[in-house]
Amino acid sequence: MSAAETAADVPLKAQKKRFNRNEVLAALIFVLPFVVVYAVLFIYPTVQMIWLSFHKAPLIGPGEFIGIDNYVKLFKDRLFGVAFWNTVYFVVLTVVPATLTALAIAIGVNRLKGWMQSLILACFFIPYILPVSVVYRVWGWMFDSQFGILQPVIALIAGDNVPVFRTLPLFMPTVAFITVWWTIGFNILLFIAGLRNISPEIYEAAALDGTSKWRQFTRITWPLIWPVTVLVLTIQLIAQFKIFDQVYLFGNGGRSDATMGLVQLIYRSAFQKNNGGYGATVAVVLFLVIVVFSVLQFQMLRARGEK
Amino acid sequence: MSSVATTPAAGEVVGMRPRKRRIIKTLDLIGLLATIVTVLGAIFWAFPLYWAVITTLKVENDIVQPGIELWPRRFSLDAYTHVLFNTKIGTWYINSLVTAVSVTVLVVMMSALAGYAISQLKFPGRRILWWIILASFMIPIPALIVNHFVLISQFKLFNTWLGVILPQLVYGPVTVIIYKQFFDSVPKELREAAKIDNANEFQMFFKLYLPMNWGITTALAIITFIGAWNQFLWPFLAVTDEKMMNVTVGITQVTDAFGVKYARDLGSAILAGLPVAIVYLIFQRKVTEAIMLSAGIKG
Fold it and tell me: Which parts of chain B fold into alpha helices (H)?
């Protein structure tokens, strides 16, 4: 803290004389709503969460300080292991496929022109803006074990209709596939922006040299799109670690432990079992996992900003 | 991998004209193939939504018939009239609308004000505030559900609009960052000119900076609205009373007592998604612009 202050000291001192009373007053009024909201709804709950994780406490009401017992319990808890690995499994199933598919689609869409491009892009993008409930109902219907339009195909492979969301080995891959379908529009947008930033002159020069399309891709497109790829990967990674909505809904209201993710374990512990302290402990672990990835993303955004 | 690709190209440079022409021809074929694959992909992507909408327009008895009917044999709006008149969807719509609009107005207002101060005014603590805002990227909001719940319980806001709205204001920091970037790029000369005219900071904000960045305000408002309308986890936790539910939560948590009715279930989902779909179709450009800005890419 003190190191940061001394570092900032020099410009601050130089500024000090130029602080204008009216300007400072106006600034305080301007930032007040944001600072109040931020302090009450962001910083306070974060601190409270860490505090609560050292207590044996119900969701609402006072608790007793128990040190790191919750954390010890956490690492022995079989359910935490299930939730953690389910989350990691889900991240693996979604992040890389969603990124690579999005890049392929973006390249395909980027080649098109005019209204055709807008129409095709809209087809890929529209699921992204829909609420999870729509996605849940639409795909629930597609995979419906009796009348789902995909069941004839499934019956062809499996020999009979399969209740996909009740078949454990199929559950996560199917929900991951649906998630990719739902959220890929976001990745496509970022990739298209990245592709458009590549100067057409580079391609023209390559075309004059008679470079093959595949070489154009490996030598020009891929290296130049790499920063966007990393950005998309990290944004996805952070987002998918927070998975709850779809897994909860398709998992039939989260009645099965086998499909549980980390956020769902927070919900289960704090809300359904009324163990606020333990719920907060799981939350702290999720928090730490995401902080690590966020620091990476933040560094990259800064690196991009400085260029 | 790249060394394999190098060999035929190197042969090309030596000069084999006819072969080169043939390569270009195959390339066009590849291009055509790529277009076809892209179009097929788009159809595949849009099909589930098409299929859902078509199903809602069918008569319930036709839906459970074997065989695939891509176009309804008999059209019916029964599913929609049933959902609209026999469920609480009207109330849920109002709940969603009130909470989503409130979140939007509050987030945009407070972010614009804070973004302006950080961008244009000198005050003690400015740098620290900016760093805290940047750092808030790291906090996973779903991890805060337990303590948000404790907070709204303390204020007795459980099952109220305000209880749904307040914790969603934590989506503000990104909006502040985008506003700051845009206010930074307003030419300093305008500010100097306004100063000479004796404009105070409030006039400066409301008459100069905000109108000049009207485009970004609409873009941010639209994306915040879509985000708030689509929220599931928090409204799901903060409300248990059916009358206070948001539409996205209500349609999944309250089920018909008469068993599964495919057209009705899908119809309620279509109705829940319709407002955001319409907003997107009208403001496509704004939506994509705002999404790219929040990812840190200036479009």
Answer: 2-15, 17-56, 60-63, 78-86, 89-120, 126-135, 145-154, 161-165, 172-184, 188-196, 201-203, 210-212, 214-230, 233-238, 247-253, 262-282, 284-294
Show me where the domains of chain A are located: 20-70, 72-306
Give the residue carrying structure tokens 């302290």: A277
pTM of the shown model: 0.88
Quote the minimal CA–CA distance from B137 to chain A in Å. 7
A20 touches B at CB < 8 Å? yes
A207 CB within 8 Å of a chain B CB: no
Query: Does residue B117 contact residue B123 with C-beta atoms inside 8 Å?
Result: yes
* CATH 3.40.50.720 for domain A72-306: no
- State whether B269 and A211 contact (CB < 8 Å): no
Gap between the Cα atoms of A83 and A172, Å rounded: 12
- Distance in angstroms (rounded) separating the CA atoms of residues A272 and A274: 6
Partners of A64 in beta bridges: A56
C-alpha to C-alpha distances, B276 to A95, B57, B223, B287, nearest whole angstrom: 25, 21, 10, 11
Establish if A123 touches chain B: CB-CB under 8 angstroms: yes
Say how many residues make up chain B: 299
Listed as ranges, residues in chain A with pLDDT below 70 are: 1-17, 254, 298, 300-307
pLDDT at B172: 84
Which tokens belong to B98? 């009130």
